[in-house]
Amino acid sequence: MSLRIVVCVKYVPDATGDRRFADDNTTDRDSVDGLLSELDEYGVEQALKIAEASGDAEVTVLTVGPDDAKDALRKALSMGADKAVHVNDDDIHGTDVIGTSAILAKAIEKTGFDLVVCGMASTDGTMGVIPALLSERLGVPQVTLLSEVGVEGGTVKGRRDGDAATELLEASLPAVVSVTDQSGEARYPSFKGIMAAKKKPVESLDLDDLGIEADEVGLAGAWTAVDSATARPARTAGTIVKDEGEGGKQLAEFLASQKFI
Amino acid sequence: MDPALTPEQEAVRRTLRELLAKHSGPDEVRTASADPQGYDAELWHRLADQLGLPGLALPTAYGGIGLGPVELALACEESGRALLPSPLLASSVLASTAVRILGTGQQRAELLPALAGGARTGALITAAAPALALGLIPAGPGDGLPDGTTAGGGRAGGIQARPAPEGDGWLLYGEAGEALDGARADLLVVAAHTGGFPRSRTVLFLVEAASPGLARTRLAAMDDTRTLARVEFRDTPAVPLGDPERDASPGLARTGLYAALAVAAEAVGAAEQCLTRTVEYVQVRKQFGRAVGSFQAVKHRLADVYVAVETARSAVHYAAWTLERDEETGDRSGEGEAAAATAVPLALAHALESLRTAAADAVQLHGGIAITWEHDAQLYFKRAAADELLFGPPHLLRARAAELANLFGPTPVPVPVPAPVPTPAPVTVRQEA
Question: Which residues of chain B have pLDDT under 50?
């Protein structure tokens, strides 16, 4: 029985672009180019490494997103994933992290899985809680924020580098893991992979296919509501302290006035 | 034709652009060209192993990716943008294409997989500048021969081949003054002249790097991102590529089309990079209390550069498409090849001019900083000048396209059917002295 790996990926607005909110305070995806979240590339990379090591594995990439999110799937397929699942429904617009995890969990169950791999967070929402929510919904163990991961027999083992300690963790499959940007540079899609991706299957699902009611997700179903958003004020010029004998004192005064000391 | 790129073509371009942006910035380019080898071997192996760049346009049967001229052009646009020093042009385009077109089945099977996989590099050695040797510009004046060959071996003159006095090998004698990648390639594909005057023909030969009588010296080139070498042959043993009895000029000219396309695409990428960086700079550089980019004199100039770059890109994509169509249809009528034979040199001419314009204006609009060694504008300017010397000049590329399209040649006039003439008296065969 082959190892079934599902990688959750997100199609995000390019972080180098000029990102802003749309009128309903959701992320504006039209005015800026989207791409596969860089942090999810690490997830794809680790999933592919695990698949290569096991020799008998199937990697499915899963995303929830608008039509353009196919781009993210295509990139993951070019990198070497075997097939893709795209959950796309107009009613999903505005869904929060709780709703997204519900959709992902249903889609993962439908696909069948032994191991779910996620990135450490998305580069737009940066919530970073999807792996934990998924493990709760799927009822399987979670091993998150790994900088090294591997599967041996029926267990997934990994290393989590914390500020104070390094933890070696393991869990029996099926399980959910998330990997950090320290897990190893993601590969570039090879030209061969790019051409092969064209022929790989992409399954499209909507909320009906997953048995989710429209009011459980979307902007209305979100547990959080964004009332307003204000753009970050432009950076102001800093204060320059000139050392004319009193430099140290002035510096200390400045820091004290800003309540740094 | 549908001029839009397919998602796969976009992905090829994007992947290479991302990788080169990360691993081949201006500093890396300078370090790599200062290297004795002239390129970053580690990066080249990475491009080979991870992406499959060297085999991009080679058939899958020989370990390539099996993509066509359009993808090749897109890849070269990216390598040109970064001024990537690499064996891409000399090995993957020139040498590999020559072997693919002219080699025997066995030679292709033996040589191409190593070239496609990046394990070995090749170079095409021609005594004349590539533009002349590959038939991209008209042969020199005063040749006197109807097929355009010049005395002393025509386009291949400068390196002569003769059958070895013993055994069935061949020996090469002569030298190539400025051979792309001549000093570092593992396998040399050498265009040589043979047959003397009566059976004058160009034949390609394979020479291994360790052959006796071979001397290679890397030259200090104006454009350091491409390495040039003087390659001398003193009775160097060589193996013919393909049939030595047949003239390789048509195959060499076809190889020339791929090289011209690659150089043109590199020029477009480099020109666009000049434009991008200049546009960034004029928005930051302040004079008289405002960004210099807000002055009309600067704006109009940059608009002209933009037009030059975009038209050149269109011309290059069209040229790539004519080559691709010719490959796909496998049309033996020669119509497809004729279309490519004019479209490619024209695209190259336009691309070289647009790079010259973009690089020169980048120097002007950056002001004094651009003429410092530390600034990158000089690298692009030198690439523009060197490309013209190797693969130009533009006006001769256009002259060649006109020649091939028979633009100024004699117009075929309907010939009146001649009245039957009496059979001439039999001619006495002249006796040889």
Answer: 142-149, 151, 433
pLDDT digits (tens, 9 = 90+) for A63-76: 999 999 999 999 99
Substitution target in B14, B15, B47 with the highest count of A β-carbons within 10 Å is B15
The answer to whether residue A74 neighbours chain B at the CB level (below 8 Å) is yes
Task: Judge whether A53 lies within some domain.
Answer: yes
The pLDDT value recorded for residue B357 is 96
Two tokens at A215?
């009011």
Residue found under tokens 């900083």: B369
**With respect to CATH, is domain B7-120 assigned 1.10.540.10?**
yes
CATH topology of domain B249-404: Butyryl-CoA Dehydrogenase, subunit A; domain 3 (1.20.140)
Structural domain count of chain A: 1
Predicted pLDDT at B1: 60
Q: Domain extents for chain B? A: 7-120, 125-240, 249-404
Q: Scanning every residue of chain A, which has its alpha carbon at the shortest distance from the alpha carbon of B11? A: A194
Q: B15–A198: do the CB atoms touch at under 8 Å?
A: no
Is any Cβ of chain B less than 8 angstroms from the Cβ of A131? no
Q: How many CB atoms lie within 10 A of CB A47?
A: 29
- Whether B36 and B217 have beta carbons less than 8 Å apart is answered as no
Biggest CA pair distance of chain B: 93
* Chain A residues whose beta carbon lies within 8 Å of the beta carbon of residue B5: none
